[in-house]
Design brief:
Layout lengths: L3 H13 L7 E5 L13 H5 L4 E5 L19 H15 L6 E2 L2 E3 L9 H13 L6 E3 L27
Parallel strand pairs: 1-2, 2-3, 4-5
Length: 160
C-alpha cells in the first residue's frame, strides 16, 4: 500500500502529460505528519503530480494536534500549521499545493471570520490558491474579502 498510490499517479502522469493533461491528487490534511495506512504519502505523491490538494479541514484534527487544545476552534492556526507541514514534505518537489478549506460547520458553527482565517493562512503560505468545501454547496462569499483576490502563481505546464 505504501507505494501503490504514488505508483499509479506516476503511471497516470506518464499517459496523460503527453496529452497536455495535468495530474493532481487530493490527500487528507493529516497525511503530511501521520501514516494513515492508506498509501497517502505526500512526499511520494508530489513527485508524480502537478498539484496536490490537502484537505485541511480544522474539524478533522483532534485535540492536541499542533499543540492546539481544539484545532477546530482555531481554523487559521490549524490550516497554517498543516500547510507548513505540507511545504516541508513537498520541499524540492514540483507539485503546487492548493488546499481545500472548510466552509461548513462540524463540531461547532463556522462563521465568515473562521473561513476568512483559513483563506488568509492559504494566502500567507503562497499556495497555488485554495478551494472551499461545503457538501451542501452553500458558501460564504463575505469570507473572501472585498476587491479582487491576489494573483495566483502559474501552474507549471507538464513536461511533454
Amino acid at each position: 500500500m505504501n507505494s501503490t498510490v504514488a505508483t499509479f499517479l506516476r503511471y497516470a502522469a506518464k499517459r496523460l502529460h503527453p496529452l497536455g493533461v495535468r495530474v493532481s491528487a487530493d490527500v487528507f490534511g493529516l497525511s503530511a505528519t501521520h501514516d494513515l495506512g492508506i498509501g497517502q504519502h505526500p512526499g511520494q505523491i508530489s513527485q508524480a503530480v502537478d498539484a496536490i490538494y490537502p484537505m485541511t479541514y480544522p474539524s478533522h484534527y483532534t485535540s492536541g494536534e499542533y499543540n492546539l487544545p481544539d484545532p477546530n476552534a482555531a481554523p487559521g492556526k490549524t490550516v497554517s500549521a498543516s500547510l507548513s507541514d505540507f511545504q516541508t514534505q513537498l520541499a524540492g518537489g514540483k507539485a503546487v499545493i492548493i488546499p481545500w478549506l472548510q466552509d461548513f460547520s462540524l463540531g461547532r458553527t463556522y462563521t465568515p471570520a473562521d473561513v476568512a482565517a483559513q483563506v488568509t493562512a492559504a494566502r500567507e503560505h503562497h499556495t497555488g490558491g485554495f478551494m472551499l468545501w461545503n457538501a451542501a454547496g452553500v458558501y460564504t462569499p463575505q469570507a473572501l474579502g472585498s476587491g479582487p483576490p491576489p494573483p495566483l502563481p502559474p501552474l507549471p505546464m507538464p513536461q511533454l
